[in-house]
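FYI - complex with iron/sulfur cluster, inputs then prediction.
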Amino acid sequence: MADTKFSKVDFSKYFQPPSLKDARRRRREAVQIINDFSIPEDMNTIGKGKNYLIETYGCQMNEHDTEVMAGILEEIGYTETKEATDADVILLNTCAIRENAENKVFGHIGHLKTLKLERPGLILGVCGCMAQEEVVINKILAKHPQVDLIFGTHNIHRLPQLLKEALFGKEMVVEVWSKEGDIVENLPQARRGHFQAWVNIMYGCDKFCTYCIVPYTRGKERSRHPEEIIQEVRELARKGYKEITLLGQNVNAYGKDLPDMENYGLGNLMDEMRKIGIPRVRFTTSHPKDFDDHLIEVLGKGGNLCEHIHLPVQSGSSDVLKIMGRGYTRERYLDLFHKIKDTVPNASFTTDIIVGFPNETDEQFEETMSLVRECQFDGAFTFIYSPRAGTPAARMKDNIPMEVKKERLQRLNTLIDELSAKSNAKYQDQVVEVLVEGESRKNSEVLSGHTRTNKVVNFRGPKSLIGQLVKVKVTDAKTWSLDGEWQKEAEAANL
Ligand code: 5AD
Ligand code: SF4
């Protein structure tokens, strides 16, 4: 039973739940470019003297969406706080990729109920990928009436209007469009970093890997126009940013949907990035199927394009890959891998792997282990398969016992640790370029940053180095990071 203190509405009257079935459809309608973000007049300064907190779960796409929502809230006067107890608006920007991500969010919504009872004026919102799922909305409606506002990934630009309804209306506000999606340009962005920035190049995914919820929650693949991206990156360069990461769920499909731009792809865009005076350019996430020769050739030119490729493989077995709907075989992945490695010899490689997919046999798992050995990855994100309601794989029997899944994951992780240590050992006594990102999490006396190949480097130096590119000599290569000494003289010589 819902808590009576909060049960204020009969939702069924005006709420059309999102539909995963609808979200699956690709109608080939033209993508609308929306440029008319607006703030209702009476909302212009509504947040003055008030605070907001956005808690972000999941991928970089969500991190960047949070920057946009923060930008919108700051535009109407709100100030960021780190303390939930000081916040007048709390938004949970959620992730739906695996069940444990969702459980974490529900746990948190439960905790926030006490805060909401203490501060009835607090606006509590849920957005991001979970908001696109009808099961989630139904659960919030039934069990968490303390939530004031739910909005989807296609509704972010409507935040001022939605917040207005939540502040002045009596009902829970729910707006989730189950649409293929448009592109909204010129939204405010409160970037969290002053020298690293994310830049969306495309939205959505049309790959429909059978286990994945993303194509349903994020809509169809749609690319921003190159001119918009180039202009944004030039502006970041002008402001002194040192590193940008081009973002998309499947960046290798970039450009395919652009009208009148046949054959314009990620390779062309990266070539444009090389001409911009920004020291480091990265991109994520890649899909092996769409990774073309032109892109490899452009990456081979180096310059500001960083030598780190995140190339999710998911499984080393062609049979499993087929059922996952990945669109490539083990052999094609390996061919691509070696082609990139030959063209960009110093590149580091990382990957994503799922263990325990329905029917995965011991032999098929061994194929994953052998592929990992062959590729000698620098690192990997490894996951136990998690059925997502509405996806084709969720209709298959999840028949691998949890102990087997856990055992496979553990063996895989041990191998990944070994390979990471081995690849790090190659850096021993080398001088590397590090973008200094801040104090190390473990020790505020130590600075921390990444190499171009995305290795974490820790070293001692003055705080004034934060935000700068410096030279560090590696003195101790560990499993997951490199310790080093700042090469002050090298810096002086470069001046
Ligand atoms: N179960 C487990 N892992 C998943 N991923 C995506 N969907 C699932 C799922 N249902 C993993 C993939 C993907 C990464 C972002 O998350 O490895 O590359
Ligand atoms: Fe999900 Fe596959 Fe699209 Fe990646 S490519 S977001 S795993 S459907």
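Residues 183-425 form a domain with the pyruvate-formate lyase- activating enzyme fold (CATH 3.80.30.20). The CA atoms of residues 267 and 294 lie 5 Å apart.
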